[in-house]
Structures are given as structure tokens and as C-alpha cells.
Amino acid sequence: xxxxxxxxxxxxxxxxxxxxxxxxxxxxxxxxxxxxxxxxxxxxxxxxxxxxxxxxxxxxxxxxxxxxxxxxxxxxxxxxxxxxxxxxxxxxxxxxxxxxxxxxxxxxxxxxxxxxxxxxxxxxxxxxxxxxxxxxxxxxxxxxxxxxxxxxxxxxxxxxxxxxxxxxxxxxxxxxxxxxxxxxxxxxxxxxxxxxxxxxxxxxxxxxxxxxxxxxxxxxxxxxxxxxxxxxxxxxxxxxxxxxxxxxxxxxxxxxxxxxxxxxxxxxxxxxxxxxxxxxxxxxxxxxxxxxxxxxxxxxxxxxxxxxxxxxxxxxxxxxxxxxxxxxxxxxxxxxxxxxxxxxxxxxxxxxxxxxxxxxxxxxxxxxxxxxxxxxxxxx
Length: 380
Known about the structure:
By secondary structure, the chain is an alpha+beta fold. It contains 9 helices and 23 strands. A hairpin with a 2-residue loop joins strand 5 (104-120) and strand 6.
């Protein structure tokens, strides 16, 4: 009992908060973490075991507080080497060539790297990454393509790439089949199937550590319309680069969380890594064009995550492996870890303005997982 109390009082969360306050860095970041750490009997002044935390002149008394629960300022995207907004539409389609049998070969190069990233203003996280970003590159290919991924381990621990798809056992990215030591290289090669919204992640033990440290990324396989004549129009609308696809506004969102004090409990939640980013930088949406979201949950330590869309409803395609909705006309979807799907909706009948979306676990929303769509009559 005594040791447990000491661990709570001397938690890394408290040290982070104290160090931020002492250095004058991002009081809002300290307030957010203090809000999670504050005991239920914290006084109205906002004092907690990690130290007092004030936000915009208001006390933060526990993570149940709903008002003013947003960080102030921005992370340094240049330092991070990635921008959550750019990630929404930044697809890696690989180097394209043709095989002797006429099929398309898409080649990718992925490197595992240790890197410190900023997940809230002033809050740094020691990540393990693919190509220096969290989530890793969003790979997008077409059903039936031959894929060749050259994976190099530039990190300090053994790593792999496990693709959610159909492939042989020796390409599975588990120990004995693609798990490599620091400095080593492995080539994954397989056909892209089935079409859908998928992901890849490291499968090195301990698995929860490698995933929560940032080793995951989107893996989208577009349907080949010639293979789906009964739904050819829907397939063409998903195939990147077609005229039908250009009519859609497509975004890839990876729901993730970060355990900043390594107690197997997340202190920060986000879409595309940076908490509250899309509250400060709403996603620009053109009212007349439909929206398609590739949604992937990789959150560790929590059984489920979710997305709730305000003032609207969407059709949902679980795993994205069908061309007709698996669920129609809903405004909230839940996903366990590694579950994913495609959301389709429109603001065509709506007035212009800001429309919120967030996790419908209120704690997740207040700790970073909330954002806005800025719906206008035209995007500059």
C-alpha cells in the first residue's frame, strides 16, 4: 500500500507537469496532464499531487472538467517532421514498374527509426517510428498489385512490419518471418488483397510496447473495378486518380493514444498523433462534395475507441472490404484496436460552419481526441 502511494505521488506525469511549469513551457500541456492525474478530492483551486495547474484563469479540477480543456499553442511540425493535417491526404503510392506478366509492381522503402516527437505543445514522447513519423506512411495500392516493401531497421530494438491482408507465412512480420535486428534488412513481397482499409504495425514482443510507441500505419487497397462489375461505379469512386474518385474529399485518420508516464494508461489521445490539432486547425471541407474517411484505431491500453460526428450521419463500411455499407445512417462508430473502416457522408444539405467530431468517450475527447470540420462553399 505504502509503495503504491509513493509511486502515485512520484509519478512521471507529476514530474512532467512540474518541469513544464518550472521551464515556462506550455502551461496548457501541463494542465491537460494534471487534469488526468488529479485525485477526485482535488480542491477547487486545482491543486493536485503533481502541482497546481491553471488554464486561461480557470482551475482544472480533474479530468471530468469539460470547459477550457484544450491545449494552447501548436507543436513544432517542422521539428516533428510531419503535419497531422497533411497526413490526412498524404498517400504513398510507391515506385511503379511492370512485371513480365504485365502486372503492376509497387515498391516501397520503409525504415524504423527512434525519434522524439511532440504530441502536445511542450509534451515530448520517445517514439519508435516508420520513416520518422507517427503514424507511419499511408500506403495506398490497387487490388491485385504486386507489392515489394524493403524494410530496414535503423532503430535500437528488433522490429518488423505485419500487414493486415492476405500473404504467405514467411511474409507475416512475426518472429522468424520478417522480424529483424537493428541494422538488418528484410524484403516483404506479396499481392495486394483483399481491397479495403487496412493497416500495418510492428509485431515484435512485447507487442503492446511496440504499438503504443508509434509503430503502425495505414494500408489502403483500392478495389479494381474490373473485378467488381456489379459495383463498378462504387469501385471507381474509391480508385485513387479516377475522375469518380476526384469527386470525393478523402481523409485518412488514425486514432491513437500516448502513455507519457509508462503506467499502461494513456494521458493523451489524438487523431494523427497531435492532441487537439483539429480543434485549432479545422479540416477544410467543400459543402458540395461528399466526404470519405479511412478510419483506423491503433489505441493501446483501452478496449475501444470511437468517432462521433455532430449534426450529421454517415454510412459505414467495416474494414472497407465491401462496396455497399455494412451499417447505414449512424453518427457514431466504435472500433477495437486494429479495427478499421470507411465512413461516407455529405454536408450538401447543411449550412456552412464548423461541425465537431470526436471520440464519444468523453475523457478521450478532453485529452485531445476532438476536432472540427470547417464546411464552406469552396476550398481555396
